[in-house]
Amino acid sequence: MLDSLDDPSVLGLRNRVMLEVLWSSGIRRMELRQLRRGDIDVERGAVVINQGKGNKDRVVPIGERALSWLKRYLVHVRPQLAEVYDSGYLFISQKGRPLSPGHLTHIAGKAIRQQARLDKPGACHLFRHSMATQMLDNGADIRHIQAMLGHEKLNTTQVYTRVAIKQLKQVHSQTHPAERNTQTQPEADSHTEPPKSSSGGASGEPDTDPKPQRSGQPDLPR
């Protein structure tokens, strides 16, 4: 989806870089908003989160792809946004001020709706959720994901394993002795009637922040 964001304007490039950082680091919306220029350690490839959720600090890695976009932003884009006033924040508006939480949600939501054809609440958090589940699918240890996301308790991170069950199913089918010995599996008989139920029954850039949307789905951990 991010590769299809090709707006070459100053704001278009800024928005692209913000989404690249969200997806690469998995940080929260408020953590992205509060980033300052000095919080990016280019040499170590890391982002310093000061006073994150629960007023806790942490350091999270950020990939080379996102870093390359960040360098471009710092050299060519941010100076234009900070010509009149510089608040010191990493991502700023055309007036040099930090972006509001609602503005960040609007930017992320617009990209998701237009590029991924999705219409879901919690737009910024979808990048965090996507990073966690995709890394788990690719073999990352859940405790490493816990540290990156800044979860105090492991059971908060374990919610993401529900989405990453595909990999666990593959491991189960490849390693469980009952699955590996396929010769002992019963053959399907097309003439055999299915068992009857014992019960006999059937089973059945805005000025104000947009209003939050509610969905029937449970909230994901933050």
TrEMBL record:
GO process terms (BP): DNA integration; DNA recombination
One Pfam family of this chain: Phage_integrase
InterPro entries listed in its UniProt record: DNA_brk_join_enz, Integrase-like_cat_sf, Integrase_catalytic, Tyrosine_recombinase_XerCD
Organism: Xenorhabdus budapestensis
Membrane-spanning ranges: none
Name recorded for this polypeptide: Integrase/recombinase
Domain of life: Bacteria
Annotated Tyr recombinase domain residues: 1-173
Keywords: DNA integration, DNA recombination
Coiled-coil annotated residue ranges, if any: none
Region (Disordered): 170-222
SUPFAM superfamilies linked to this entry: DNA breaking-rejoining enzymes
One MF term in the entry's GO annotations: DNA binding
Polar residues: compositionally biased ranges: 170-187
